[in-house]
Amino acid sequence: MTPPSRGVPAVITASTPLPAALHGYEIARLPRKESPHTTAARSRDVAALLPRLALATGSTDLSVADLAVRTLRSAFADFARDHARSSIARCWSTWNGFCSFLVAEEALPGNPMDGVQRPRPVRPAPKPLRGESTTELLLTSVAVARHGARDPWPERDLAVVATLLVCGLRSAELLGLTVGDLAGARGERRLRVCGKGNAERSVPVGDVLDDVLARYLTSRAARFPRRGSLPWDAAMFVDVRGRRMSRDQLQYLVRTAYRAAGVHDRVARGASVHALRHTFATQVVAAGASAVEVMRLLGHQSLTTSQQYVDAGAQELRTAAAGSAGYAVLRRAAGA
């Protein structure tokens, strides 16, 4: 029999110190294979509430027994003073999951989070790029070496923006792509994408995007000739030094592309990289895709999320993108 993980008590009870119980909860969640972003967000939620729980109980030596409705209400009331609705809802979800785990472990008789209020979920409206000419201006601009750039790489920049725009990927999904994730014969190319909760989906790659990616990989081989052929698990998108592109580098690339194209004022506040994903969704809906098809293409975990794009209003969607314009615009911008 395998011994319990280091730092995790064999049995979690009401007297178990809270840090040890939280560690046990993290160990129990390992089979879920959550993304690093999910784990990091949960850690932030835990760290944010612990001092507030200590204040509510008057003690820093917290145990499972301190997780009572009254103390949790007090802690969340304090947390809500300087946090947005979305942050409160996420933190509530984190602690609700932890308390449910403690109930399953029989360390708590019931889930005290049932007595703690949380904000009603408000699903934000889609935020695609505004203006019918925006995507064409963006792709045409990014396909040309930016004047004054320290180390211009237009083939890479176009491949990044185009993949986001015509495949609807999240930032983490794009950054996690490997060379081997692009597979299939010409005309049947697909990208294997690892989404939220490590759920995999297959996204079709049209011939135009296939050509754009091929030009990028050719330019990459010319930039780094000593590295030879790329292994299947090599990062698809890299920085100018050949290292896997980071989230900050991706955001900077996209923001710079907006400004160079003169369309930064057509991007909804807070959207940035995600605006390209929203634009893709509005395009496929305007082209006649159903909520189920949107769900499959974008890797949504809930049909309700996909339905937002269908319900956003036909006129607004047509203004954002006429039909499946992404590939037509990309074809002109890439000179195909």
Question: What distinguishing features does this structure have?
Answer:
336 residues; mainly alpha; DNA polymerase, domain 1; 14 helices; 52% helix
| Number of separate helices | 14
Strands of the widest sheet, in order across it, are 1-2-3
Which ranges are low-confidence, i.e. pLDDT below 50, for 5 or more consecutive residues?
313-323
Overall number of structural domains: 2
CATH architecture descriptor of the largest domain: Orthogonal Bundle
Q: Strand tally, please? A: 3
Please estimate the helix content: 40-55%
Mean pLDDT over the full residue set: 86
Q: Kindly name the structural category.
A: mainly alpha
**Main pleated-sheet profile:** 3 strands, antiparallel
Give your account of this protein's structure.
This protein has 336 residues and is mainly alpha-helical. It folds into two domains: 18-115, DNA polymerase, domain 1, CATH 1.10.150; 134-334, Intergrase catalytic core (hpI Integrase, Chain A). The chain is built from 14 helices and three strands. Strands 1-2-3 form a three-stranded antiparallel β-sheet, with no helix packed on it. α10 packs across α13 (314-320). The model is unreliable at 313-323 (pLDDT under 50).
